[in-house]
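Long-time lurker, finally posting.

We've been working with Small ribosomal subunit protein uS2 (Candidatus Iainarchaeum sp) and I want a structural starting point before designing mutants. I don't trust myself to interpret raw outputs, so I'm hoping someone here can both generate the structure tokens and explain anything notable. Sequence follows.
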Amino acid sequence: MAQKNKDEGIIAENVPVQQAGTQDAKQDIDQPKQTALVETDKYLNTGSHIGTKFKSGDMRKYIYKVRKDGLNVLDVQTIDERLAFAAKFLARFPAEKVAVVSRKSYGQTPAKAFAESIGATVLTGRFIPGTFTNPQCTRFTEPLAVVVTDPEYDFQAIEEATAVRIPVIALVSTNNALKNIDIAVPINNKGRKSLALAYWILAKEILKERNDGTELAKAVDDFEYKMKEGEEDEQRRGFERPERRGFGRGGSRPMRRGAGRGGPRREGGFSRRPSFNSF
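Top reply, 14 upvotes:
Generated this for you. Predicted structure of Small ribosomal subunit protein uS2:
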């Protein structure tokens, strides 16, 4: 059984409903959904629709139902539509001007595979402050669009992208806040298989949108983080936690000095423009 952590989030990778081929996954939807990018079963069998027990105010509109065990379920059709929208948006930019960020270990393998597939810049592990804002930084880069795997872990990249007016596309679960996120893709961003599927779909659809004859050579399995011996038990105990202090329940970003909860967006950021998260 999965263990509940102090934020009331569930390590969704360990929820039994996510095991491929189970009938329980299909019970999370009341009737078959029409998905265009991949078969609906691929979303269900990877647990892409499984959120946490906590839901932020920003994410309520993306929640399809609440299961009897308290887990929030995302709408698979919405997942499919938002991935398609994000891919169309990212395809507009030169490949090398798209940066994909992932601090959490489960997201690093799919982020790297995604970057290799479309020619993007990948930034995994600790995000060095100044990467987007300080030309003297050793990893300084000037992307035109940034993709983050989990806003709770990749907060530094979001802050810097906002400061220099770069649009942020984020994979978000039910516990995430959407402050300074320009395009939200609601999906299970905690599971290995769901992250692999999300980045594989994005890569596939971006290459299709470019229409230059390039096809995705990698399979979904190539995007999946491979567990090391003993790592699964460690993950079940909830050892992979953000190192930054001040996170509220459900992964909300910490308050800045002098600002209350739910304060205004930072001035000058791309997110001052009309939101892409209104549908």
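Before you design anything, note these points.
The chain has one domain: 12-224.
Residues 12-224 form a domain with the Rossmann fold fold (CATH 3.40.50.10490).
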